[in-house]
Amino acid sequence: MGMEAALQDSELIVGANPSWWVVCLCAQWCGVCREYRSAFEALARDWPQVRFEWVDVEDEEDVVGDADVETFPTILIADGAAVRFLGAMLPQTRVLARMLQSLQGESGLPRADAQAQALFERIAVSRVE
After folding, report:
1. What CATH code is assigned to 3-126?
2. How distant, in Å, are the alpha carbons of 18, 46, 101, 112, 123 from that of 33?
3. Would you say 40 and 93 are in contact if contact means Cβ atoms under 8 Å apart?
4. Partner residues linked to 24 by β-bridges
């Protein structure tokens, strides 16, 4: 399936997935990212009800698209349908865990902008098995 066709189905895929997502946008050349990855994967094991994904912004340029990721790591958190956070974050899993817990406890949170939502939808489509 081509990326355009896949993106047309992204609303169905994203809407059908009610679980939370945490996506780390990094680059292999970034030393901080390389060091953070094992801690990120350990956090994923501690939160089995949340889908954790690692996206290398250079290896997956087609997925990242025109999203401007300048600082690593950049974290995207979505509630399964809508992005609730997209931004740079200290590479500390305790900070990420607290933010995730806080976002999950809030209702009626505002959605992120359209570019962040489009990025999440491209990531979700790229991860469909």
Report:
1. 3.40.30.10
2. 28, 20, 22, 24, 19
3. yes
4. 54, 75
With CA atoms as reference, report the closest residue to 69 among 89, 96, 47, 42: 89
Number of other residues whose CB lies within 10 A of the CB of residue 90: 12
Q: Would you place residue 27 in the very low, low, confident or very high pLDDT band (cuts 50, 70, 90)? A: very high
Instruction: Indicate the Cα dihedral angle 44, 49, 50, 51, nearest 10°.
Output: 80
Peptide bond into 73 cis (omega under 30): yes
CA 81 to chain centre: 12
**Position 17 confidence tier, pLDDT thresholds 50, 70, 90:** low
Under DSSP, the state recorded for 110 is P
For 23, what's the count of Cα atoms within 13 Å in the CB-facing half-sphere?
29
Domain boundary assignment for the chain? 3-126
CB 73 within 8 A of CB 12: no
The model's pTM: 0.84
